[in-house]
Amino acid sequence: MIMLKDRSKSIIEEIEKRNVVPIPRWHFVLQRFGFWLLAAISVLTGSFAMATAIYVFIDNDFIEDHEYINLFLAERPLIAEIIASIPYIWLAALAMFTLVAYFGFRHTKKGYQYATTKVIATALLASLLLSVGFNTIDVGKYIHRYLIENVHVYNKLVYANEHRWTHTEKGLLGGKVMQYQKDKHFLLIRDFNKIIWQVDITNTVIRPGTRIFLGKYVKITGVVTGKQTFKALTMQGWSKRYHKRPVQKPATVPVPTIAPVPTVPDTLAH
To answer: 245-249 long-range contacts, Cβ below 8 Å, gap at least 24?
Structure first.
């Protein structure tokens, strides 16, 4: 008993000697909240990465637009085209944010009770569900389009559909309509390398349902006719594949049959 008292006394003296101050409760509450916030932000950011990855992959023409698939398959096989089109940078970002979410959740009050695989699978599922919701309002499209037009290094990290349509030497021109003169059959297009092209759309076959206006993104096939001038052969809008509505073919209008004109007897021959 005496030994315990002596030991308690020595501990108290050591505490007083080191000026140890008890950690307030709010400190632990704030710390737990911080880890929950870290996990939530990581899942949210991961969903942005997944939404962009989904858009980049599904926006490829080989997914649905079979009209142009032969153009791309002439360059390399379909399997090579698919492998090149996988947005690895966004998948890597998703993996990183998932691990950060796992780290944050693991340090919450009861986070240690859950298996690692279960926590990671839940974080991925949450990111997937959120990304599907975000893509209904085009979040992935806006993130990708902003980066490809404003961050030069991003163009080297992904092989997106914009790359396929930035080869005027192969007859492929894609970009944003900067000027449209319908009466003169003239378009001014800024491609994804920010090069301005003067496009002649005289006798161009425009896909049904394609509307042309300022700010519209289009895909054009044709030939280069001079320095930054292009003769368009076909043109269509740059629509997201999984939002694309079926093209309505123009209704055929029956040609009315004209009754033959009755012959009038020639009475002047006599």
So the answer is: 245/209, 247/207, 247/208, 247/209, 248/208, 248/209, 249/208
